[in-house]
Write a structure and sequence with these properties.
Rossmann fold, alpha/beta, 5 strands
Length: 122
């Protein structure tokens, strides 16, 4: 794992496709972030109540709780958590996400977006 000062930053990833979720996790860990991953929004939101991350990256469509609902709940209760919604569908105008990324995902743009949000956060 590269140590570039990101290890203190916790990122939660919610994605129902295990291969994609693990890919996001490996990519973020290589960049030095601490990462926890979840197969749906419900499990991610439950975990936020015990360990507040700096950022949540979520897929739009998942079972149990979709990404749009997860982000709305996060912004209602934890306003300082940065959020990124990744989806093949258009982002609803009322979704309060900090950033929206369309699929297929460009990983360079993905990492640049994360770094930009953390610069704003810091």
């Amino acid at each position: 794992m590269e140590n570039n000062g990101n290890s203190r930053l916790m990122v939660f990833v919610a994605e129902d496709d295990e291969i994609i979720r693990k890919g996001y996790k490996r990519t973020l860990e290589r960049e030095g972030y601490s990462v926890r991953d979840f197969p749906n929004g419900e499990e991610a939101f439950h975990a936020i109540k015990t360990e507040i991350p700096h950022m949540v990256i979520t897929d739009g469509e998942m079972p149990k709780m979709d990404g749009w609902t997860l982000i709305k709940k996060i912004k209602e209760e934890f306003k300082n958590i940065q959020t990124i919604l990744i989806s093949g569908r258009e982002c609803p105008k009322d979704c309060p996400t900090d950033k929206y990324l369309g699929k297929p995902l460009d990983f360079d743009h993905f990492l640049t977006t994360i770094k930009e949000l953390f610069k704003i956060w810091n």
